[in-house]
């Protein structure tokens, strides 16, 4: 089969090449999928470039990445199933995440075929395309795991999503809206129409306005970007509110090449022992199968309506990553192996 193979860490144009490799054989609990679409997101960029360097010792591979094929989530058609697979059969349209555990790993999705555990998959609803479905699993898991349970807090929660036009933020807006929250979404000028399409009640342009000095109050601040310190958000966070930092390393443009956002995460974690507005570890994470079933339902009833900006072929993965890092995409970027 054809696949993107990563020679080492570095500039995507230098370390990635399309090669012919052995098609993976299917294990007893696995499904072999013909990939129709795979998503492009910052964690793919991190593992291809090897930045921040700490990730190399946290699962992606110290000298070079293992596996060598990038991509962490995809949608496609089941081609064959292992002896113990009961939930899927050949021809089923599915989508899912191809990594387990740490996000900073290659998951072999940028290939014509891959094998994946059946519990990492759900059936793709007929009302969404392969391209749309492929954008959901990895970004969706981050959003689902980190967004506080808004329904349990009651309708009308005031939610701020900072960095709302990216992969994680777009899903956070839609999850928050579906639970009856009032959503304020912050991103670049060029993404404000996209934020309205995604359902934001109020949009704020980060190039002209500082949301932490807006005078608004929020019950939840879901901060994908981390461009303001927690102390600034305290001005707009309700006394019983919750602040969640996802963290974004801006594709290496802001330094932090060794540790990225990790030191800041540790500071917030330590501070969570004395400030109840910060979530405390251990964080509850949904099981992968439950999460995928939930994404199936959210796509099927159009609660999640992924917006795809552009598709690229396997040969064009470096161009796709360059578009991602430029911030110019209006919606998600997808690889279609053909
Ligand atoms: N997406 C995934 O599947 C995934 C999975 C696991 C973990 N993560 C992690 O989660 C983080 C976010 O991922 P993502 O996919 O949502 O990233 P993304 O698609 O790059 O989205 C980030 C958004 O924040 C915007 N932004 C940049 N500076 C801003 C500022 N000062 N104020 C407000 N908005 C600003 C960006 O706009 P511009 O593009 O114009 O700069 C972009 O729209 C990353 O660190 C990633 O490693 C992501």
Taking the sheet with the most strands, its summary is: 7 strands, mixed
CATH topology of the largest domain: Quinone Oxidoreductase, Chain A, domain 1
The chain-level mean pLDDT equals 94
Helix content: 25-40%
Structural class: alpha/beta
| Small molecules bound | NADP nicotinamide-adenine-dinucleotide phosphate
Q: How many distinct folded domains?
A: 2
CATH architecture verdict of the largest domain: Alpha-Beta Complex
- Summed up, the helix count is 11
The coarse overall form would be globular
N-to-C CA distance? 11 Å
Total strands = 14
String of helices and strands: EHEEHEEEEHHHEHEHEEHEHHEHE
Rg over CA atoms, rounded to whole Å, is 19 Å
- Tell me the CATH superfamily of the largest domain: Medium-chain alcohol dehydrogenases, catalytic domain
Can you tell me the residue ranges where pLDDT is under 50 for at least 5 consecutive residues?
none
Q: Could you name the CATH class of the largest domain? A: Alpha Beta
- Strand percentage lies at 15-25%
């Amino acid at each position: 089969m054809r696949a993107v193979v990563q020679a080492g860490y570095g500039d995507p144009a230098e370390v990635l090449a399309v090669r012919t490799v052995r098609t993976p054989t299917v294990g007893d609990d696995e499904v072999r999928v013909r990939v129709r679409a795979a998503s492009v997101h910052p964690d793919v960029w991190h593992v291809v470039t090897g930045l921040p360097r700490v990730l190399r010792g946290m699962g992606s591979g110290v000298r070079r990445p293992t596996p060598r094929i990038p991509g962490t989530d995809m949608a496609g058609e089941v081609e064959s199933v292992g002896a113990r697979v009961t939930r899927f059969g050949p021809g089923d349209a599915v989508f899912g995440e191809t990594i387990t555990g740490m996000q900073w790993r290659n998951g072999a999705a940028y290939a014509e075929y891959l094998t994946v555990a059946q519990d990492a998959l759900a059936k793709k609803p007929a009302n969404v395309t392969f391209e749309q479905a492929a954008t959901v699993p990895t970004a969706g898991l981050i959003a689902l795991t980190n967004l506080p349970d808004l329904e349990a807090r009651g309708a009308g929660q005031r939610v701020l999503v900072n960095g709302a036009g990216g992969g994680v933020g777009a899903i956070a807006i839609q999850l928050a809206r579906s639970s009856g929250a009032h959503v304020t979404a912050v991103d670049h000028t060029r993404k404000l129409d996209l934020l309205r399409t995604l359902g934001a009640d109020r949009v704020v342009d980060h190039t002209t306005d500082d949301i932490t000095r807006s005078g608004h109050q929020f019950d939840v601040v879901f901060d994908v970007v981390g461009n303001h310190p927690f102390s600034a958000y305290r001005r707009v966070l309700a006394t019983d509110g919750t602040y969640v930092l996802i963290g974004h390393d801006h594709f290496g443009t802001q330094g932090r090449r060794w540790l990225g956002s990790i030191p800041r995460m540790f500071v917030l974690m330590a501070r969570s022992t004395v400030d109840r507005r910060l979530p405390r570890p251990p964080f509850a994470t949904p099981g992968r199968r439950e999460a995928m079933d939930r994404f199936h339902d959210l796509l099927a009833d159009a609660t999640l309506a992924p917006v795809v900006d552009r598709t690229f072929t396997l040969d064009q993965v470096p161009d796709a990553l360059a578009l991602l890092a430029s911030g110019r995409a209006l919606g998600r970027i997808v690889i279609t192996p053909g």
